[in-house]
Write a structure and sequence with these properties.
The chain has helices at 8-12, 14-17, 22-39, 45-48, 58-61, 65-72, 85-100, 185-205, 226-233, 268-279, 297-301, 330-348; strands at 104-105, 118-123, 126-131, 134-139, 147-156, 160-170, 175-177, 180-182, 211-218, 242-248, 258-262, 283-286, 306-311. The chain has 349 residues and is of the alpha/beta class. Pfam families: Peptidase_M28.
Length: 349
């Protein structure tokens, strides 16, 4: 969750200067698939023996959010900074999970009109800086050559293929700075793991949704919500058909039953989350952004119902090297997944 000040003006003109990067989009996925051989060595020994293209879907359905968090916070993922090799390895992991779960690719169209899982965009250079003890990114020179990046998007198609529910989380973090790894376990490997867990649960049930359930992993959130902004400006699904966006960011710390959310009004997504929270006997409150924000922002600006679910104590150890897997509470992750499952199930089935 970056500080939004300093980025909004920059992003306001980004739509006009985004490059198509379609050929890069294809190569990003190809390079990511090549990188899978290396990231498989990072998985637990039993999983490392699996061949993801030969194993059954059951091996993917058995994974958990905590498995995802443990994997994505390892040193080899280099803190998942957008535009880095760590981002590419993370994208490889997410593409592998989507393929293994049998999800339809809903990213950019390739030259043969087939879809892949990546949605390409570019990012401005940034400068690292500290604010109240948190490492943050400040806007760099906008005239400097931008760097390619990509969202990763796939989904479970419903019977009404023109309408979609988006379940999203940003997968990028801060990288390595001054020799220190910023693992980003809570921010936001926790969100990535939660939404993968929801999709695994839906797939285990084997029910066909009425509306598409789209998994969207945004990149460059820490650089000013660039990935989600790029998607809103150039969506790979029918924008008018987006019924709700459930964004998940930093949900794994603090008291188990205490959550918060950001949204600009009491929209359909907010109501579904509130209903699911009540059914799970938890608590959720709307809190002020206080100069911060997350990937629901530009959906709300475009009047698309969207909400970000987070821990009420999300700022604790946020953007520090102490945001490690042991900081994340598995019980809270499980509860967050149950809440998201209930909200998605209410609107998609």
């Amino acid at each position: 969750m970056p500080t939004r000040r300093g980025f909004l003006k920059c992003l306001g003109g980004l739509g006009a200067c985004l490059l198509p990067w379609s050929s890069w989009s294809d190569s990003f996925v190809n390079n990511s698939l090549t990188a899978q051989a290396s990231f498989k060595n990072l998985l637990p020994a039993k999983l490392a023996m699996l061949n993801s293209y030969q194993d059954t879907i059951a091996s993917y359905l058995k994974r958990t959010a905590m498995d995802d968090i443990s994997t994505l916070t390892q040193q080899a993922f280099e803190g998942r900074r957008a535009g880095s090799l760590g981002e590419e390895k993370t994208a490889a992991y997410l593409v592998d999970q989507m393929r293994g779960l049998g999800l339809n690719p809903l990213g950019d169209a390739m030259e043969n009109q087939q879809r892949n899982y990546s949605h390409a965009f570019t990012i401005y250079p940034v400068i690292e800086g500290f604010s109240n003890g948190r490492l943050t990114f400040l806007q760099g020179d906008p005239d400097t050559l931008r760097t390619p990046s990509a969202n990763i998007i796939g989904g479970l198609l419903g019977t009404s293929t023109n309408e979609s529910i988006i379940l999203s989380a940003h997968y990028d973090h801060l990288g390595i700075f001054q020799g220190k790894l910023y693992p980003g376990a809570n921010d936001n490997a926790s969100g990535v793991g939660c939404i993968l867990d929801v999709m695994r649960r839906l797939l285990r049930e084997g029910l066909k949704p009425k509306r598409n359930v789209v998994l969207a992993f945004w990149s460059a959130e820490e650089m000013g919500f660039v990935g989600s902004y790029s998607f809103v400006q150039n969506p790979t699904i029918l924008r008018s058909g987006i019924q709700a966006v459930f964004n998940v960011d930093t949900v794994g710390n603090g008291p188990v039953g205490e959550f918060a959310f950001w949204a600009n009004n009491n929209n359909r997504a907010v109501q579904a989350v509130q209903t699911a929270v009540a059914k799970n006997k938890a608590n959720v409150v709307l809190i002020p952004t206080n100069g911060h924000n997350s990937d629901q922002l530009y959906f709300n600006i475009e009047r698309i119902p969207a909400v970000t679910l987070m821990s009420r104590d999300w700022l604790n150890k946020n953007h520090t090297p102490e945001d490690v897997p042991s900081f994340v509470d598995p019980q809270k992750i499980a509860l967050a997944s149950d809440i998201l499952y209930g909200a998605v199930h209410e609107l998609a089935f």
